[in-house]
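Page 47, continued from p. 46.
Same chain as before, 426 aa.
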Amino acid sequence: MKPHFQRGSLLFEQRRFADAIGELRLQLAEEAEDSLTHGLLGLCLAEVEKYDEATHHAQQAIVLAPDRPFGQYALAQVMLRRNRYGEAQAAILEAIRLNPYEAQYFAILGSLHLQASRWRDALAAADQGLAIDPEHGPCTNVRAQALVKMGDRAAAAATMHQALARRPDDPYAHANQGWTLLHQGEPLKAMEHFREALRLNPELEWARAGIVEAMKARNIVYRYMLAYFLWMARLDARVRWGLVIGALVGNRLISNQVQQTPSLAPILLPILFAYFGFVLMSWLASPLFNLLLRLDRFGRYALSADQVRGANVLVACICVTLACLGAAIATGNGLLYWATIVCAVLSLPASAIYVCDAGWPRQTMAAISLALGALVAAILAIGLLPNGAVPPPVELAAVAVMRFLPYVLLASQFAAMYLSRVTPQK
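Result:
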């Protein structure tokens, strides 16, 4: 009998991780070389974000019982929480080699493929798990997510319908059904499933993020933007970058054509303006509608702390832009009109700060935004000083910076696109 291990297992299932850790430590005090206890303790410690200690115990479980798959499974789960996907995949593949008849191992493998946007591999892993246990909830959820990403919405809907019929109290099934409905353009129905998922598990971030998107999608403008975002998310990363770069090249070609053939301007300029408006909206849509939810008496409770901070940053950028515009109108100073436009564009990289994951990606995006803001402030200060108060070399440098600033701002958006997709390791 292992009473401390049994109590720790029960507490782990109840998600009372701190209490479970205490019981499992007591078990290790009695039996220091119990591999199962080390593995389960590693899983508990990962849940409370004590990652180094969690890794140690998972590795210790492998050392004590190298022929048992549970240690490898625990290590895979810990590495998944640490965003170390390569190490997690190696561990779960070893667990599958040791025991190829455990559906949960294939669910973890499928989740790793989803993280890497390998939709077909994720579907294959989920199907392998379901071949072992046709009613396995996590494999069913992975299968539905993979089908949605592959664009097979009908099959995804059928999969989730079967999952909910078997497990009506599974919060992950409700969350996945909500996302499936979002992909199908039905935000109101999706919201019902997200609410049910959060009722069953108030800490389920996947459902909380979904209900925010569903609330924003009540606005018809954002609904179409969300459809675009979800479509882009289903594409391979190389395809996404190819579309963005192709659109920029096309925009440049149209601009050159307008300069060479002014008679085509009435036809081509609307295309340019439409492209610029679409790009601007695609970058600002999410933080802008987060701001609207921030002002909503119910919506504010659905936003995460980072989304609230991002909305606050956007408010600050809007206030600075309006202040520059007011000053420009009052004084008629052309430089202030320039500053108004630049401050409006600066809201793009600034609003991306809290889209990036915490850690070096967010810090880098914040540094880029602050550096651009300081650069604009310095140019504005130089331009507003009386004639002769600034040395000629400084004036020339300011003019050169103003000339190249649009390209710098464009580069900052590419940096934002890249950094928003980086997942730092823990």
